[in-house]
Specification:
Shape: globular
Largest sheet: none
Structural class: mainly alpha
Order of helices and strands: HHHHHHHHHHHHHH
Distance between the termini: 37 Å
Radius of gyration: 22 Å
Number of helices: 14
């Protein structure tokens, strides 16, 4: 009898959800989700940072060296200062081995990370193990995207750092044009990157198909892509340069915030043009099982 009463309590018709209920403002909903998911975001940030840490150390060390950033500036940022010290403290053969391993797994683990960020941004459940299981499932595509990330970023830094002060005449304008072109291509690739990994973990497409759709969405979502890039750049700069707590923020929040923001802002474009219009024929199994 008691069981029937409990069942009738949950099956009794109620007020339900008003179909005409006004949707929350996107900005308010973003911060509401961010606060609700903050614990998972922080833990995923730590796990992701551990996986890419050797590669990140190499990137920061090379960047500081190439751009000639003074020790005084480096010492003001605890996170960068720690990385610089670790880079010179670890023996070179060990550093090279760790960097190579981190570079190989960077793309796949970023696939897993984007899977988690996509699910959190669309209010789906996330297991911490998804970071690694989805990295394994998308390993081949992840390696391609990861190596492309490294190549594009390296090329951008080299062209930006290229010294053309001793060049004059037509060659000066030629190298200046190359530098501007490198900046434009790098920015557009950043826009494409917001979609590359998310499409890879959501749809069963070839690498060519993923690039094609990412290119299209980089154009269709141009406004929101610019907004995400500006906010992410400001967030990274402010969180990494906050005195005394920058190391804590970088370790627990920065990467997750940027990934969560990118997926929250750009997934609606993917949903509109790849789910609503083309259907779910190419969806991966977990995307079919998990409703939005």
């Amino acid at each position: 009898m008691a069981r029937k009463k409990r069942e009738s309590k949950f099956t009794r018709p109620g007020k339900g959800v008003d179909a005409n209920e006004r949707k929350k403002n996107a900005v308010f909903r973003f911060f509401e989700l961010l606060i609700r998911k903050i614990t998972r975001l922080c833990i995923l940030n730590v796990l992701y940072l551990v996986c890419i840490f050797p590669l990140l150390c190499a990137a920061i060390t090379i960047g500081v060296t190439l751009f000639g950033i003074s020790p005084e500036v480096v010492n003001q940022t605890v996170f960068v200062n720690l990385i610089m010290r670790l880079s010179f403290w670890v023996p070179l053969p060990v550093s090279i081995a760790l960097i190579v391993i981190s570079a190989i797994f960077y793309g796949p683990i970023t696939c897993g990370f984007n899977f988690c960020m996509r699910n959190l941004a669309t209010e789906r459940h996330v297991w911490y193990s998804d970071l690694f299981s989805k990295a394994k499932e998308n390993f081949k595509q992840g390696i391609v995207f990861g190596l492309l990330d490294i190549i594009v970023i390296s090329s951008f830094v080299l062209y930006l750092r290229m010294d053309i002060s001793g060049v004059s005449g037509a060659m000066y304008y030629y190298y200046t044009a190359l530098r501007i072109l490198a900046i434009i291509i790098s920015i557009f690739y950043v826009f494409m990157r917001y979609y590359l990994y998310t499409i890879a973990v959501t749809f069963d497409l070839s690498i060519k198909g993923i690039f094609k759709n990412s290119y299209i969405f980089a154009v269709l979502g141009f406004g929101r892509n610019v907004l995400v890039t500006v906010i992410s750049a400001l967030a990274v700069f402010s969180l990494s340069s906050t005195p005394y707590i920058d190391i804590f923020l970088m370790a627990t929040f920065t990467f997750s915030f940027c990934g969560f923001l990118a997926n929250y802002a750009t997934y609606p474009v993917i949903k509109k043009y790849m789910l609503n219009e083309k259907g779910d024929n190419h969806l991966k199994p977990e995307a079919e099982r998990t409703p939005e």
